[in-house]
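Lesson 9: reading folded outputs for more than one chain in a single document. The general rule is that every protein is listed as its sequence immediately followed by its structure tokens, and records are never interleaved. Here is the first one.
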Amino acid sequence: MGFLSRVTVSIVGLGSKAILNGYCSSVTVNGLEHLLKTLENDERNRGRGIITMSNHISTLDDPVAWGVLPARFYRDSRMTRWTLGASDIIFTNPYVPEPCVFSTFFRLGQVIETFRGKGIFQPAVDAAIEKLNQGEWIHLFGEGKVNPASSDPASPNAARLLRFKWGVGRIIMEARKPPVIIPMWLTGFDKFMPEGRPFPYKYFPKPGAAISVTFGEPVPEKDVQDALEMLVRERKLPEAPRSTSGGLADPSRPQEEGRSGAVAEQGWLGRPVSHAVEAVGGEPSREDPELAREIARVRSAVTAVIQREVEALGRRVLGKQK
């Protein structure tokens, strides 16, 4: 961790802690021990990474939610998250000429620049997988956009998340070792940083919000493996997107899917992936469109399994259990 990065992460972390303590009427933290125990586990030094996954209800969810961490963690990049951030939102500013100070700030703050429309086989996703294989902590907002209704108990969409992005599944599938996957649920941040306010108020937090940050127990790796095995065995894998931009109809997709499947077969989900490949029949080449379709369906299933875990935590937090 370079000096400037250490300074940036420390300032942001301490600033987030100050905001939580000074702006909010209350801050409730549940299950933090699940994350702390995982962050301090020696398995990370052997290449087992960490993924936290949460709902996304305001533009300040990250970094302010990390104000709940112990202050000593901000001095160590291994104890602070990496995340993906959209290039067109946080890495550019129409009023500031390049090189943009925002780009430098977010890169020093352990944010990987992601390009909308470039699909799941872009360098940002490659970088996230590599970080995970080095035992790093990656935080993901699976929905890829702000969705305040998910945390509103009065909303018909309470604890219902938008379909998670396929990149979530690729990151999990291509990890060499089973990542520790910790679901999270946030409430109150949508009141703290409400959407739709006019300029200049939209850039400032609103005091007095009651915030909660809940960490669930890590998802057992066997649960994910068994759920995927069952879907493959019973031929119940979901369909994959077929668009010409990043979908199965994209001319470059079969080759990319073939490479992704080959990597996944060597990792912790290798058995269900191999069984899905066998279901295609014969000895398909790595550029076979049918093989590409099957690999993409497995990825869709992995993504859906993790989304269900996050939504289940949301229902418990919001008191919406069936």
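And here is the second record, again sequence then tokens.
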Amino acid sequence: MFFRDFPFLVYLNLSFNEFEGEVPLVEANVTISVEGNNNLCGGVPKLRLPTCVTSSFGKKRKRPSTKLLVPVIIGTSSLSLLVFFFVIRLRRKKMRNNVSSAQSSNEQFLRISFAELHKDIEGFSESNKIGVGSYGSVYKGILVQDGIAIAVKVSNRPRRGASKSFISECKALRKIRHRNLV
């Protein structure tokens, strides 16, 4: 035992330290004081301590030491952060792929000249006008080549603020994805 390595030990005072567990065996010529330590057991018979129970059934459960707990917490936190950043990166990559696929789908849209629009809407006649706003009018028509119904907005350029309104509408419509918007 540990105390056997001290041959000159004469007096061992363990009093009032709230120790618990078995008192180590020491040489017979050592005086030991264990007052105020109600959780001590075993040791030399002259101490008159209760015998230690060897079964683990009644023992208190030990708390994990900080030497083990700190690396586990750091490791778990690091792994969680790594997974978090990996998921964020995958989502951004997926969003970029969706944007690039939307841009590649722009190539499949019809290209229509103003002359074809003029013809399909029958010269922007009053009979095809479906709405009027402060900055322009909306006309309906049918594309002759595909038979698709369309609506065309014609802005009123001379009116003050019309170009600013047109740019705002373009910005809003650019963010909208719909099969009927070109």
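What the second record shows: Strands lie at 11-13, 20-22, 31-33, 39-41, 129-133, 136-142, 149-155.
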